[in-house]
Amino acid sequence: MLALAFGFLPGCNRKEEEERADRAVSTSEGASEGKSNTPAAPHGGPEKGRRVELIFPDGLRVADPEVNQLIEDVLNVCASANYEEFRLLWSARHDPLSRDEFAQSWPAVRHVRVRALEKAMIETAAEEVNKGGDPAAQSAADAALETVYLTLVEVEVDPAHRVAERLPDNSVVLMLVRENGRWRLANATKTMRNWLKEKVARG
């Protein structure tokens, strides 16, 4: 994943989030790496003299520049090993890895590449839409849809580093959600992760 750079994220920690996002109803804008011949454009920064290659291919960028900017910000913040900035990129509804996990994981990372960025529509939890508790708004809230993005990132780690032994997979899927007018990182459910990984594998 950024399974290291973002800290071995297991996916959503709450049952209600799992149930909410598992009801994904459609996907559209976005592309997987195999659909583009555009050469990769590296982005990155130093971390205590160690250079990590960070790649976000132009062919994967979407129409919304704010989404692209969040992806770049995540890569660069991780490369700078700045946990405070990393934490600020997350949705208030989701918990990122701890400071200690972040500090222990990043030194093992050599190479980070965005493999896919896809737009999706998911059903929004009724309690989030109908916060006022108005019964008349319940049916509309139940059918409300939320636009999100899913991104798959591959991470290459130093095989000699002890962190590599704990890494079952070198890729991770994260969700981008709109919160207070800005895009933020969030955990993706197992269904979401499997769907995007299978899509990328099919090319």
Commentary on this structure:
- This protein is α+β, with helices and mostly antiparallel strands and 203 residues long.
- It has one domain (2-202).
- It is 30% helix and 28% strand.
- The chain is built from eight helices and eight strands, in the order ααββββαααβααβββα.
- The chain has helices at residues 2-5, 15-21, 65-79, 83-88, 99-105, 126-129, 138-142, 190-202, and strands spanning 26-32, 46-47, 50-51, 53-55, 109-123, 145-157, 171-179, 182-187.
- Strand 7 and strand 8 (182-187) form a beta hairpin.
- The longest helix is centred in the middle third of the chain and has 15 residues, at 65-79.
- The radius of gyration is 17 Å and the shape is globular.
- The model is unreliable at 1-28, 32-48 and 126-131 (pLDDT under 50).
Count of DSSP-assigned helices: 8
Structural class: alpha+beta
Number of domains: 1
Main sheet overview: 6 strands, mixed
How big a fraction of the residues is strand? 25-35%
Helical proportion?
A: 25-40%
- Cα(first) to Cα(last) distance is 19 Å
| Overall strand count | 8
What order do the helices and strands follow? HHEEEEHHHEHHEEEH
Radius of gyration: 17 Å
Which overall shape is indicated by the principal axes computed on the Cα atoms? globular
Overall pLDDT metric: 73
- Which runs of at least 5 residues are low in confidence (pLDDT < 50)? 1-28, 32-48, 126-131
